[in-house]
Amino acid sequence: MMRFGLRVPACEPADQVADFIARAERGGFDYAWVPDSQLLNREVWVSLGVAATRTSRIVLGTNVTNPLTRHATVTASAAATLDEVSRSRFVLGIGTGESSVRVMGWKTARLAQVQEYIELMRSLWEGRWVAPHGPAFHLNYATGRRIPVSIAASRPKLLQLAGEIADGVIMVTGISKTALEYGLTNIEIGARRAGRRLEDLDIATGVYCAIADDPRAIRKQAQPYAALYALRYRGTERDFGIEIPEGFGISSLYPDLLHAEDWDEAITKTDWVPDAVLDQFCDEFVLLGTGEAVAAKVHDLASYGVNNLYIRGFSTYDLPADVCQAFVEQVIPRFRPSP
Questions:
Q1: CA distances (Å), 56 to each of 109, 218, 250, in order?
Q2: Total structural domains in the chain?
Q3: Half-sphere exposure of residue 92: CA atoms within 13 angstroms, side-chain side
Q4: Confidence (pTM)
Q5: Could you report the average pLDDT of every consecutive run of 10 residues in the chain (339 residues)?
Q6: Range of the structural domain that residue 68 is part of
Q7: Which terminal Cβ of the chain has fewer Cβ within 10 Å, N or C?
Q8: Are residues 201 and 248 in the same domain?
Q9: Are 190 and 248 members of one domain?
């Protein structure tokens, strides 16, 4: 059965975020993923803690935390506490850090840092004494439960690491059949290194989403993402004859292009993106269309083997109310058995 997860930025006070997650749960969503970006949104652990007390079924997760802004002992304790409060409904989503670290001028985490961080947390959750850099210590209230860890990844080496050591993967490689195969192939390479199979991992496929009666009217909201697509995949310049303005880059807006506080300005500054590139990006990474059209695309993804969707709107600073409502009313019921 297809499972549905929703990105819920902690862009409002914790009680409002928790109430929104509770509505998503009642509407049939299976996961609520809250970003950990300390200067962009409210504190992720407080928001998830309140949500845990107002929900009973939905799985709660960070999407994502990172190994740099919090020590592994701090995250291990926070995760163990939230897992306790939520009655084992927590998943720790982790990545290399983007908006949370780049805004401070830091580099993102190395793969070795991600791996070491996860291994240390697991040792603490298991109740073991550890001494990574000196005196030994342990988590005094560890229950021994293995809290699930999902790694968010789009690039080959991180996808492979996820396949090797994680319990799950938040795969953000695109939604075309070719893009999905690319992601799964790399995850499988890592899984085989650990003597595992793809079936041993819980793989969520990340996708942006906008539902409207006139998709062309809201398509421009994806333009800053398409600009980054052009910047990262330089072949698009050659293939589409793009002229990227001199000095334009991911840091052209505060805090960065994909999390711009002024989204209208981000759209204006990316007007150089050709329609053909925007169309290509939307085809590869966005569920865009009417509710009926999006449901049909989700059916296509299911036919490719996708069984867990991570859905996100374009905004970092607004609750995804429209996307949530559209899925609850027009998409999720098509994938649930009739009462």
A1: 34, 35, 39
A2: 2
A3: 28
A4: 0.95
A5: 98 99 99 98 99 99 98 99 98 96 94 99 98 96 98 97 99 95 98 98 97 88 91 59 70 88 94 91 93 95 96 96 96 85
A6: 3-210+290-335
A7: C
A8: no
A9: no
Q: Is the dihedral of CA 231, 235, 240, 241 positive or negative?
A: positive
Claim to verify: residue 150 and residue 298 sit in the same structural domain: yes
And the tokens for 208?
């942006």
What tens digit of pLDDT does each residue of 46-91 get? 999 999 999 999 999 999 999 999 999 999 999 999 999 999 999 9
Across the strands, what pairs with 91? 61
Instruction: Judge if 220 and 317 occupy the same domain.
Output: no
For residue 260, CA distances in Å to 55, 183, 250, 273 come to 31, 28, 10, 17
Amino acid at 158: L
Tell me the C-alpha to C-alpha distance, in Å, between residue 226 and each of 163, 183, 206, 229, 270.
Answer: 28, 20, 16, 5, 9
**Residue type at position 112:** A
Query: How many Å apart are CA 331 and CA 328, to the nearest integer?
Result: 6
Q: What single DSSP character describes residue 146? A: -
Q: Could you tell me if 107 and 27 lie in one domain?
A: yes
